[in-house]
Amino acid sequence: MMPLITTLMALGSDLRERLRDLRDEPERGSLSVEQVIITVALIGIAVALVAIIANAVTSRSAQIQ
Prior knowledge:
Transmembrane segments: 36-57
Number of helices: 2
Number of domains: 2
Structural class: mainly alpha
Keywords: Membrane, Transmembrane, Transmembrane helix
């Protein structure tokens, strides 16, 4: 029973330490507005390219038949 209590106490102290570190750096891991804008732009470009390629493939397949 004693090793279980010791293990739980060690895990609890480690969890408290991690929570304390997260509270000290609240902006750690957050995205900036620039990153969001760049990501949205890249997704828009990818969607546009897929639409262009799909249109080209459709028109070419109509020529083959």
